[in-house]
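Support request, priority: normal
Reporter: lab tech (M.K.)
Component: structure prediction queue

Hi team, I submitted a job for Arginine deiminase-related protein from Flavobacterium ginsenosidimutans yesterday, and the status page still shows it as pending. I've pasted the exact input below so you can check whether something in the sequence is tripping the parser. The sequence length should be 311 residues. Please let me know if I need to resubmit or if it's stuck on your end.
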Amino acid sequence: MKQTTNAIVMIRPVAFRMNEQTAVNNYYQKVLDGLLPSTVNAKAQQEFDTFVEKLRAVGVDVTVVDDNLQTDTPDSIFPNNWVSFHENGDVALYPMFAENRRQERREDILDTLEEKGFEIANIMDYTSAEEDGIFLEGTGSLLLDRANGKAYCALSPRADEELFIEFCEDFDYAPVIFEAFQTVDGERKLIYHTNVMMCLGETFAVICADSIDDKKERKMVLDNLKQDQKEVILITEAQVNNFAGNMLEVRGNDDKRYIVMSASAHQSLTPKQIAQLENHAEILSSSLDTIEACGGGSARCMMAEVFLPRS
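Reply from support: The job had stalled in the queue. We restarted it manually and it finished. Here are the results:
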């Protein structure tokens, strides 16, 4: 199984704004005072378009789908939370915490991929769990080590343990389960998505180990990464706040690997951390300031990786 892919799906926003329904447990979101919604969306579109250009310039196969105005989906720019694509042709659809995010799941996006020659064999649909108030938000909640058959999950209101274990059984992953915290107004609160504090590359892992308060859990997670010969690159909670955990390794022209992150994530890294990452792949960063502030997500959240077979 490959850990990285050349193909990704990205959703261009049409009505991007801070989503009041996700702000209840995404403490990275901020209100941008004094900006009209149309200005926020225009800035987000500009950041999105520049980001896509940079990815395509190095040979990443980006399928861009426009969001539509019929649905009120301010977070549609983060498709990795509702869908994941797998090498055997499986597509998984996930239950979403915020009601207005459930409209992001669109069959026409799957049709677009099939038109491009990707083959979908089977759809695994977990979305009925929403009726029971149970959520698992795609590769936001799940960090898949596809090559080593492990799935990492920081439990939270958006990542249910039993449903995560069910996913692992269905897709043949060994579950690695823990809790990760951030400090909010002096209190330790659960981090809403695993991919905010951790990134898995082919030969490295970026992780904020300090966010795993339980020492046994922290050791267990780090031991799993080391067993699989990944170089562990530690980041701080302050760097997590700059989305340094929200990176993704992708492939460009000639299978060259790139570690994709936002400009704020890149700027937050120390020279030593940058050198460590550059031992594995070239860094590609782009300014996503508006998207990060209003959406509380960053570069990794914007990219749904496509591992489907191609005809």
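The chain has a mean pLDDT of 92. The radius of gyration is 18 Å. Let us know if anything else looks off. Ticket resolved.
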